[in-house]
Design a protein that fits this description.
By secondary structure, the protein is an all-alpha fold. 81% of the residues lie in helices and 0% in strands. The chain is elongated and about 60 Å long.
Length: 151
Amino acid sequence: MSLSLATQTARPALTATHRRAALLAILALGLAAGFVITSPAETASAIHRAGPDLTRLLRGMALLKTAMLTAAAGAILWRFGTPVPRPWFAAYAAALGAMALGPGLVWGMYHLYLGSAAMNGGLIATLILLWRDPGVGLGLDEALRRRRARI
C-alpha cells in the first residue's frame, strides 16, 4: 500500500491560523538564516572582490528574489486558509524555507551559488506544488463561483 501526498493522516489537522503562523515562522527563520550564515568578514571580502557595480546588481537581484518570495508566500498563505493534509503542509514549508534562504545568501555576496540554488529550487518546488495540489483547484473554483454570483 503506497501513501500519496493527498492521503489524510489520522492525526488532527492544524487550524488555518496554526498553519499560517507556522509558515510565517519558517519564512522568518529561512530569511534570518540566509543573513546569519555569511559572516561580516566573508561579506566584506566578497563585496571587495566583486566591486560596487556587481554588488549593486546582485543586491538588486536579492530584492527581486524577495519580491518573488513574497508572492509565493502569499499564494501559500491563501492555500492554507483551507484544510491542508500534513504531507502537503510539510512540502510547502520545505519549499518556502529553501526559497527564503536564498535572498539572504545572495545579499551576503559570499554564497551566491547556494543562495541562487535554494531560491530557484524553492520557487520551482512551490510552483509545482501549487500546480499539483488538488486543494488549489477547488479553492480557485470556489472563488470563481463566488465572483460570478456577485455579477
